[in-house]
Amino acid sequence: MGVSLAQKMLSAVTGSVLTSLLVTPLDVVRVRLQSQAHTPALSAPSSRLYTPLPLPLTQFRDLPPNLGISACCREVFWINNNAQYCVAGPTMAPLNPSDAACAVEEVERRTINSTWDGLRKIAQNEGPRTLWRGLSPTLVMAVPANVIYFAGYDWLRTSHQSPFQMTVADAYIPLVAGATARILAAVAVSPIEMFRTRMQAAHHAPTAAGHFRETMDGMREMIASQGVRSLWRGLTLTLWRDVPFSAIYWWGYESGRNVLTDIRGRSEARHDGFEFRVGHGEEKIRRRSRSRSREDHTATMVDSFIAGAASGAVAAFVTTPFDVGKTRQQVVKHASDAVKNAAPRPEDRSMPRFLWHIFQEQGASGLFRGWTARCLKVAPACAIMISSYEIGKKMANDINERREQIRNGA
């Protein structure tokens, strides 16, 4: 007796909740790293730390973006709600070197340089609870997304009614089924993911309720000016990231599980004094299926955890440039009319042109910014999610078999 769709959905929900609780802090750091303005370090106090007013707003963009916010500043201007500028008014005397050092020291205190640096600084400057900011929308997004994703993948990969059973070679069904399931899930939850990403990137409001209101106000302004379709802004980049990720992940996961199953089969055969043969085609599939049905829960968890972590890490690294592009496009906010009319925003470009802009501006390091945080988050997330899902399905299958035995015995 197989596992029902409802049982697969319950397994996906359980894995989603557990994964979200454990990896949300790394996701917060990843978003901050990728949405953080590109700020070359100042080696010495600069005379450009102060600018007399009045000046056209467009000239503020030429100031160093890493001046920081501190008591040194008379006025603070937020350009595009992203890069902060410390500007001295006309009545202020030129800043002395100690004031300049104050501004530089402040930005260094808040600039995130690495994953662990981000975890430490966010916890110190904004409180440990900030590391779980966006958990509610993460759960709201992860539960339906993973139900659609995992249950859909299982059906597309194993069901006789799947359109891929007769049209795709067995070796490539995981790749095609994973990509298709991800498209369906991404379209369904894209608005929730945009809300979560913008909420995690925000760092202006002093309270969690303030962050929520700030994000909601930004979303309402966006819908009012650009329409409901703007909720799916970045979906193209999301698909460019998630579709190849899912294809690579599921292909790698199924291959990894098969390798681990074969290794376990050889070990058991040697222990029992039998010759182990891999077999071919349908025979290989049936043998692996029998081997996995005899596995205990520990073996299932270990194999799925290892295969999920390894495949997830590789897929996460390869698709990091698309993740950077998606994050920057979704967290961009409306600039003032003066800035917006001066030049189009890079985030408004098509996906290939936008990624090319990032490469020209920051090089390959810009395209792979936050890859460590992404891999550290995705690898354990994939491992926890898939092992929880597989264990849940195995427990459900065991329950179904016991019920069937009781029913037949009666």
TrEMBL record:
<keyword id="KW-1133">Transmembrane helix</keyword>
<dbReference type="InterPro" id="IPR018108">
    <property type="entry name" value="MCP_transmembrane"/>
</dbReference>
<dbReference type="InterPro" id="IPR045315">
    <property type="entry name" value="Mtm1-like"/>
</dbReference>
<keyword id="KW-0677">Repeat</keyword>
<dbReference type="GO" id="GO:1990542">
    <property type="term" value="P:mitochondrial transmembrane transport"/>
</dbReference>
<keyword id="KW-0812">Transmembrane</keyword>
<keyword id="KW-0813">Transport</keyword>
<feature type="transmembrane region" description="Helical">
    <location>
        <begin position="130"/>
        <end position="151"/>
    </location>
</feature>
<dbReference type="InterPro" id="IPR023395">
    <property type="entry name" value="MCP_dom_sf"/>
</dbReference>
<feature type="transmembrane region" description="Helical">
    <location>
        <begin position="171"/>
        <end position="189"/>
    </location>
</feature>
<keyword id="KW-0999">Mitochondrion inner membrane</keyword>
<feature type="repeat" description="Solcar">
    <location>
        <begin position="3"/>
        <end position="159"/>
    </location>
</feature>
<keyword id="KW-0496">Mitochondrion</keyword>
<protein>
    <submittedName>
        <fullName>Mitochondrial carrier domain-containing protein</fullName>
    </submittedName>
</protein>
<dbReference type="GO" id="GO:0005743">
    <property type="term" value="C:mitochondrial inner membrane"/>
</dbReference>
<feature type="repeat" description="Solcar">
    <location>
        <begin position="299"/>
        <end position="395"/>
    </location>
</feature>
<feature type="repeat" description="Solcar">
    <location>
        <begin position="169"/>
        <end position="259"/>
    </location>
</feature>
<dbReference type="Pfam" id="PF00153">
    <property type="entry name" value="Mito_carr"/>
</dbReference>
<comment type="similarity">
    <text>Belongs to the mitochondrial carrier (TC 2.A.29) family.</text>
</comment>
<keyword id="KW-0472">Membrane</keyword>
